[in-house]
Amino acid sequence: MSRLFGTDGIRGVANVDLKPTMAYALGRATAKRLAGPGGCIVVGQDTRRSGDMFVAAITAGATSLGVDVHVVGVVPTPALAFLARSGPYQAGIMVSASHNPADDNGLEVLDADGLKLDDAIEEELEALIWREGELGGVGNAQLGRSVDASDEVGAYREHRVGLAGSIDASGLHIVLDGANGSGGAFGPGILAATGARVEAIHVEPDGININVESGATSPGSLAAAVKEHGADVGFALDGDADRLIAVDGHGRVVDGDQVLGILALERLSRDALPGGLVVSILSNGGLQRAVEAAGGEVVRTPVGDKYILEGMQVSGATLGGEKSGHVIVLEHTTSGDGIVTALELLRVMTTHRSSLPDLAAAIPMLPQQQRAIKARHKDQWEGDAALRRAIADASVRLGDAGRVLVRPSGTEPALRVMVEGHDEALVAELADALAALAEQRLN
Questions:
Q1: What's the pLDDT score for residue 2?
Q2: What's the pLDDT band for 411 if we cut at 50, 70, 90?
Q3: Which of the residues are catalytic?
Q4: In degrees to the nearest 10, what's the CA dihedral of 331, 336, 337, 341?
Q5: Are residues 171 and 229 both part of a single domain?
Q6: Do 195 and 325 share a domain, yes or no?
Q7: pLDDT for 95-115, tens place per residue?
Q8: pLDDT tens for each residue of 212-239
């Protein structure tokens, strides 16, 4: 039996392979394992139309075991993490598929500290999900209640506005792309608290347009808007606002690795990067070279922001993240928060009176290509001799400075291939060849 939980919870096409019955079972499992009768959990969602359905199912499941459910409505995932940590909750559940297509949805459980669960606890929840019918229930007088807790989100907003108020960006013009997701109702006001002029695009969600030709996974329209409006910088959130991709005033994309490099080098300049910079195995080798050349250390972890945080906790680091734009700034948040990342970039830009292109130039990237190959048998790639030989041959052609990484996606039925090296044409050629072979062999 395949594992339910991927790197970001349980995901699938809403009402097709991720059904409300799964959300109901997860609500009961969470109530049983993490809360207990008389306890309470907090539940939020992004802007997908299917979110209401899943929240209702989670609520029914948890209340059937005597647990109150505080429903906060449409919020960024980092806002739910903030509330889970600061409120009277034993757990939180976020209904979101983050950057995935609009038809998808996901169920992610957080603990009382607002952190993603350890793998061992996820396995316990899975076991409870598969036998949820054996968990029983409580009588009418002991049933949990559904509580409208939408006003609690004000505490998250107030905290982030406080961070913004410590930055003077009054001379800057910003375009923010909300991806028609849950960050659109929060980001513009928070960024405006820096004194910057903020124009927002893709902040009109209709339940089906989340991440559609917008946001961190599709920054082209943000780049065009930045150039059209003559803005200094653009910020693109994803559907649940836990990641950020930046665009400079020339319309050029500054990805998560360069953002991490900018923040890391600034901290190194004031001897404030304890424990090094924690990144995933996918982060660009150019980032590692830049940080190490400045006297810093880079620690690598498996892919997934929960593994980034675990690595930070082990090394004592305060900064970590991924190329995709998940950035954890531990003095402000224990999860990726695209709005906080934007504020930190603005802090560096204004403190050092530097433009984003000048800051990004200090972190030259190695050519890198990534491919996502739809694969019915994504977990069987290591057992395919032809694919293994092709990967080994590609590594030889790239030389000592090159890398090939192959891994099954934790959020989609896909195999992910990353190729990195000095020769851009060779990197692209090998990435295409490996992707084509994987598609042929694994379907």
A1: 65
A2: low
A3: 98
A4: 70
A5: yes
A6: yes
A7: 999 999 999 999 999 999 999
A8: 999 999 999 999 999 999 999 999 999 9
Contact 210, 47 (CB under 8 A): yes
In terms of domains, do 345 and 379 share one? no
Can you tell me which residue has the tokens 């150019």? 286
pLDDT (mean) for 30-49: 97
C-alpha to C-alpha distance for 423 and 427, rounded to whole angstroms = 6
Taking the C-alpha atoms of residue 28 and residue 154, their distance in angstroms, rounded to an integer, is 28
Q: What are phi and psi of 291, to 5 degrees?
A: -70, -45
Angle between helices 154-165 and 338-351 (to 10 degrees): 10
Range of the domain at 379: 368-441
Q: What is the mean pLDDT of residues 155-181?
A: 97
> Residue 244 falls within a domain, yes or no?
yes
Q: How far apart are the C-alpha atoms of 235 and 244, rounded to whole Å?
A: 7
From residue 401, how far is each of 122, 200, 282 by CA, in Å?
Answer: 37, 41, 14
pLDDT at 6: 83
Same domain, 267 and 284: yes
Average of per-residue pLDDT across 142-160:
97
Q: With contact defined as beta carbons under 8 Å apart, do 335 and 94 qualify?
A: no
pLDDT at 416 over 60: yes
Residue 377 has pLDDT above 90, yes or no: no
Integer Cα distance of 418 and 428 in angstroms: 10
**Same domain, residue pair 137 and 168:** no
